[in-house]
Amino acid sequence: MALRRNLSRAPASPFVGVPARYFHSTRPKRFAAPVPRAVPLSRLTDSFLDGTSSVYLEELQRAWEADPTSVDESWDNFFRNFVGQASTSPGISGQTIQESMRLLLLVRAYQVSGHLKAKLDPLWLEERPGDDVLDPAFYGFSEADLDREFFLGVWRMAGFLSENRPVQTLRSVLERLEQAYCGTIGGRPRRFGLEGAETLIPGMKEMFDRAADLGVESIVIGMPHRGRLNVLGNVVRKPLRQIFSEFSGGTKPVDEGEGLYTGTGDVKYHLGTSYDRPTRGGKHIHLSLVANPSHLEAVDPVVAGKTRAKQYYSNDQDRTKNLGVLLHGDGSFSGQGVVYETLHLSALPNYTTGGTIHIVVNNQVAFTTDPRAGRSSQYCTDVAKALDAPIFHVNGDDLEAVVHVCELAAEWRQMFHSDVVVDIVCYRRFGHNEIDEPSFTQPKMYKVIRNHPSALEIYQRKLLESGKISKEDIDKLNKKVNTILNEEFQNSKDYVPNKRDWLSAYWTGFKSPEQISRIRNTGVKPEILKRVGEAMTTLPENFKPHRAVKKIFDQRRQMIETGEGIDWAVGEALAFATLIVEGNHVRLSGQDVERGTFSHRHSVIHDQETGEQYCPLDHLVMNQDEELFTVSNSSLSEFAVLGFELGYSMENPNSLVLWEAQFGDFSNGAQVIFDQFLSSGESKWLRQTGLVVCLPHGYDGQGPEHSSARLERFLQMSDDNPYVIPEMDPTMRKQIQQCNWQVVNVTTPANYFHVLRRQIHRDFRKPLIVMSPKNLLRHKDCKSNLSEFVDLAGHPGFDKQGTRFKRLIKDQNNHKDLEEGINRLVLCSGKVYYELDEQRKKTERTDVAICRVEQLCPFPYDLIQRELKRYPNAEIVWCQEEPMNMGAYNYISPRLLTAMKALGRGTIEDIKYVGRAPSAATATGFYSVHVKEQTEIVQMALQQKPINYPF
């Protein structure tokens, strides 16, 4: 039904008159009940395909004859036009309205179900189901009716059938229907080479040329392994010598000015690239292929996010200059859930890209799985029907048909700004990879394939038979291509790679992990803080917020005015606001980020009478770009939305892009993005990103699905060496640059402010994982003073370094540099600190020091050693809320031991663990048990007797 709804919105489109064979919908149900007289003609013909319908048509006609207003207006128009036209058209005086309607229903049946007879499979292996609704006899027509003339002129639905000939024979109508709907194009509203799907290349080239003609300037491409090199070499125009070089000797190191850097690299079928290429129409178009892992379809949302970012930075407000194109396999398109998650973003206001073009290279087998075992629907593309997206099915052996639908897909996207799908039904001539023998599992298919000519051979034969080209011309072309390939292969032996291509204009000057980047201050001048603080706490005069929200904003205004009691939400807002007034783009996305899952953020507030929305951070400066700050409640998706934000963050480094999980526990729904992109993308593909991921974490007795963001997983994926202390001198330190990402568990609003600003105020980018709090959002002691946000570098009484993020917060009792009287040093991270500090005050323990490790990864060896020196006689305790096999313990202990050994300070037995016992579940589901466990953890961490075994 996709076509019907889309075309009804744009009846004057260039697609009027295009055969509806290009579209499909679910086969209609057959009605057995009388036709409601109020049902419009168009609605009725969508589903009224039962041959017994003439009874109801007669009833409808009689009702109209008695009272034209008793039927829907569309029926009234139909009957009036038919009666008037039939009386003036010779040769059809015997045609009844019932016959006309039966013929109309037959036409509609071809439009709806004709694809079932289309010649889509080049191997002719598929046993396609027949359908009696395509049989003229089903509608009461016989052999004797074939040469009768029928009037078509009044049928808007007939469209192309009338062809300015309002009277046609039934035979000619049926021939036209068969040609239109049952040819090599059918429609509905891995070796890694392309053998068997060669027509993809000319199809894509024509698609891109047509898109360029229609205004597209940049295309972001995501695709799996199959055909990747063909696309790189022939469509993107990556130099063939570079491709040959990568396969013959591997990627050579890239000179970064201060040493060579290649990362770990990746298999060649995963690598991305970008090039500018000319089009046949004389324009230039920028093509970028996004690097991706073997996890099929995982790149889909990344492409969408990168495309959206390109549209923002190029002021492409109508979304016609930047286009996303995704290539899929048939098995993965129907089988991978992220496909639907990505499709689901297509029309959402802050995620739409104006339509993505999807190309399915339909092998008719997924590795060794037959379609009947790989999906439950007729077509692999049926998931796209949820969007009303037009779906083009085309025989991959018919080159001109493939080119035609690819051009049509580009036209559709540019005109209607919505997704469109091209399903190229082809085959895989060889196995999935070099060691695969496909005849093991598909003997019948590969018996046919061995004797089946290639698409090139088929098209060559067609051209020769047409007389448009000679055998000599073909030989000349083949010789020219082989000469080019041989020359490029020879040149590949001396090929030297250029600087990595992520350093586009936006990324110029950013450092690699081998280049030293100086540490910068992140504090802000007090007058700027006051100014943006006032703006972000001021509401329009006539705006009527909820009473509780009004109270919150009044309290925030007081915080700014007094400079005291700054809470978490205000600290975050100050970070956003100061970055925005500095000209940086800030984008925050997630399922409940506008209000905040815990009703703490209120970045968008609602008028309680009109429903009007107001975002204070959109009004920090005069004439502020309305998209400079973007905050959006996302769809209920982790995988696709996180992937989208990752792609968005990769386009331009001068943006703070954040994704916040509803609860940190739920982030495991996006584990592929963490594992394959975020934690390893720079190492594999030399791509940096400064994406921030906020994961609410903390044990509050809410059960095993609302406590833990799985801190241990992020630390386990960190690549810093636990047994080597890196260079820690501030002027020489490259620790963070050489680590794959940062993991923090921050405990003050000011430190959160600085860690966010740090993401922008340095000349490299690293992902930041924040174990964001829950109960600290309103904790009475989790407050900061405005002076902690201010840059007071050089002022008397302040650190000459200025104000920066604190990787470790020392004990708040202001101990001297040497405190021999302290007999226990408790190291912790996160909100458990406040419980420990409260217990220490309650028990008046003056011999215990508590230090907060705010940055877990990379490990702050220098600051840890500073504290170890400060307390030379202290027993060392690591305290955490999480079970022993979770949390930070297994990451902290070897690194803490390395720091201790460097000071001659004991063995692993000297590190005492306090926390929950090992567990399969992250937390108990019984609140009373939680309280008991939490109490015992805090007491044990501070007790005077030695700790012998972890709690």
From TrEMBL:
Keyword field: Oxidoreductase, Thiamine pyrophosphate
Enzyme class: oxidoreductase
UniProt superkingdom: Eukaryota
Enzyme Commission code: 1.2.4.2
SMART domains reported for this sequence: Transket_pyr
Single GO MF descriptor: oxoglutarate dehydrogenase (succinyl-transferring) activity
Pfam families per record: 2-oxogl_dehyd_N, E1_dh, OxoGdeHyase_C, Transket_pyr
Keyword Oxidoreductase among record annotations: yes
Residues in Transketolase-like pyrimidine-binding domain copies: 566-779
A GO biological process held by the record: tricarboxylic acid cycle
Cofactor entry: thiamine diphosphate
GO cellular component, one term: oxoglutarate dehydrogenase complex
Family note: Belongs to the alpha-ketoglutarate dehydrogenase family.
Function: The 2-oxoglutarate dehydrogenase complex catalyzes the overall conversion of 2-oxoglutarate to succinyl-CoA and CO(2). It contains multiple copies of three enzymatic components: 2-oxoglutarate dehydrogenase (E1), dihydrolipoamide succinyltransferase (E2) and lipoamide dehydrogenase (E3).
Entry protein name: 2-oxoglutarate dehydrogenase, mitochondrial
Annotated organism of origin: Eleusine coracana subsp. coracana
